[in-house]
């Protein structure tokens, strides 16, 4: 987990959601134009229909958040692609409104529960409230806006589940066929569950290497912590008290990882330990570590019985996405009697509609076993120009809610 270490240790855990569009609940939190500018720049209605009205200010906010997220990932959106991206974002705003309008009170209740879990997990991944707010700010979000938009996307998920998922019946034969034909998906490498304590040898503000004198002080402090750990003091408690790894500190320093994901010295030490053994002090480019091994799991293939329920859920979602969703979204738009304000927009949105069904379910493809918490996007992409996708997957803009309210990884494909 080389890149995971670098992110966690430098306090750069990613808030891994690219969520666009403004929920009605967030309007009071979004920046408003000054009174003197309103007469000069009226808030143009871009699309209207039964029960919905999407304005230029909403699209502008969505675009700014989209662009800020790309910038935070070291990517640049070519200016000549703005129109293309805006047309895609507008379509997603419209779809979101249509779905939210169909939500029942029960849909909203379930979505609120799921959204609360996700936001709490995101805060924990950030390491501190200050870091959480800073990372959201880099993507042009306030915490209130982030919470409201996560909720909005969760509501969309609940509506689609209620109206389409209940109509799908996946057989045992289909499940076994998928399992047999996709065996690699169920192979698990050797992993360890271990905890570590880090004393960083980098300045938290500048990320520059500390001088030798300060490094020596850190090493002496780590030697004292090691002595306490080997005398039987609670390792998780020591990690919470002393560790400077924001990604694991609040979890008692714990990580679970396979080979090939951590820096070499860290990985070698972790995989060579015996259960409940505490390592010597390990030096990496991040600082001084000590590790305690909790559990080692051999490479294995998950049995069908253990993944059957997960597979049924996944195949159900595929069925909804590929066979039911295109017509469903087409009907929603038709029934709403949508009217776009410009001929150019109408043409682009019309072409977009044909692709809706294949995209809205993109967020559902994650394997349920990916984990019950949010996985950060480890590391940063290399700087460069962001290629504009043929279309922006609707599912990429709201949390991937998995079975039983569990959350999978959020990611921006752009």
Report what the structure shows.
This protein is of the alpha+beta class and 414 residues long. The protein folds into two domains: 276 residues, Orthogonal Bundle (Triger factor/SurA peptide-binding fold), CATH 1.10.4030; 109 residues, Chitinase A, domain 3 (Roll), CATH 3.10.50. A four-stranded antiparallel sheet has the order 6-5-8-7. A three-stranded antiparallel sheet has the order 2-1-10. A hairpin with a 2-residue loop joins strand 1 and strand 2. Helix 4 packs across helix 5. The N terminus and C terminus are likely disordered.
CATH topology of the largest domain: Triger factor/SurA peptide-binding fold
Beta-strand residue fraction: 5-15%
Number of strands: 11
Cα-based radius of gyration, to the nearest Å: 24 Å
Strand order of the largest sheet: 6-5-8-7
Number of spatially distinct domains = 2
Uncertain runs with pLDDT below 50, 5 residues or more? Answer: 1-37, 354-414
Give the rounded overall mean pLDDT. 76
Compressed to H and E, one letter per element, the order equals HEEHEHHHHHEEHHEHEEEHEHHE
Largest beta-sheet characterization:
4 strands, antiparallel
Shape: globular
**Percentage of helical residues?**
40-55%
By secondary-structure content and strand pairing, the structural class works out as alpha+beta
Number of DSSP helical runs: 13
Task: Supply the CATH superfamily name of the largest domain.
Answer: Porin chaperone SurA, peptide-binding domain
In whole angstroms, the N-to-C terminal distance is 23 Å
> In CATH terms, what is the architecture of the largest domain?
Orthogonal Bundle
- What's the level 1 CATH class of the largest domain? Mainly Alpha
């Amino acid at each position: 987990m080389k890149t995971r270490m670098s992110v966690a240790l430098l306090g750069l855990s990613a808030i891994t959601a690219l969520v666009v569009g403004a929920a009605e609940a967030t309007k009071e939190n979004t920046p408003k134009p000054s009174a003197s500018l309103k007469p000069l720049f009226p808030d143009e209605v871009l699309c209207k229909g039964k029960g919905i009205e999407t304005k230029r200010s909403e699209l502008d906010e969505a675009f700014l958040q989209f662009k800020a997220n790309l910038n935070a990932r070291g990517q640049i959106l070519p200016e000549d692609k703005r129109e293309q991206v805006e047309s895609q974002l507008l379509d997603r705003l419209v779809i979101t409104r249509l779905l939210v309008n169909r939500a029942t009170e029960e849909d909203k209740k379930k979505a609120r529960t799921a959204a609360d879990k996700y936001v709490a997990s995101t805060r924990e991944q950030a390491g501190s409230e200050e870091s959480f707010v800073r990372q959201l700010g880099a993507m042009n979000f306030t915490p209130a806006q982030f919470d409201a938009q996560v909720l909005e996307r969760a509501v969309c998920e609940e509506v689609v589940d209620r109206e389409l998922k209940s109509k799908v019946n996946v057989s045992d034969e289909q499940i076994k066929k998928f399992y047999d034909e996709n065996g690699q998906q169920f192979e698990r490498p050797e992993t360890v569950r271990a905890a570590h304590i880090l004393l960083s040898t980098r300045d938290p503000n500048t990320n520059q290497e500390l001088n030798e004198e300060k490094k020596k002080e850190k090493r002496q402090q780590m030697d004292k912590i090691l002595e306490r750990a080997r005398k039987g003091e609670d390792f998780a408690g020591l990690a919470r008290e002393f560790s400077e790894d924001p990604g694991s500190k609040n979890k008692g320093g714990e990580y679970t990882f396979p080979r090939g994901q951590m820096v070499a010295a860290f990985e070698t030490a972790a995989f060579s330990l015996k259960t409940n053994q505490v390592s010597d002090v390990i030096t990496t480019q991040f600082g001084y570590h000590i590790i305690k091994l909790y559990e080692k799991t051999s490479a294995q293939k998950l049995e069908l019985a253990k993944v059957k329920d997960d597979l049924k859920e996944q195949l159900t979602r595929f069925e909804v996405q590929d066979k039911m969703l295109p017509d469903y979204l087409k009907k929603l738009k038709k029934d709403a009697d949508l009217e776009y304000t410009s001929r150019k927009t109408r043409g682009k949105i019309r072409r977009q509609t044909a692709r809706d069904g294949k995209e809205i379910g993109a967020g559902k493809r994650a394997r349920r076993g990916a984990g019950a918490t949010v996985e950060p996007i480890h590391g940063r992409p290399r700087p460069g120009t962001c290629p504009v996708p043929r279309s922006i997957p609707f599912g990429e803009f709201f949390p991937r809610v998995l079975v039983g309210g569990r959350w999978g990884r959020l990611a921006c494909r752009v």
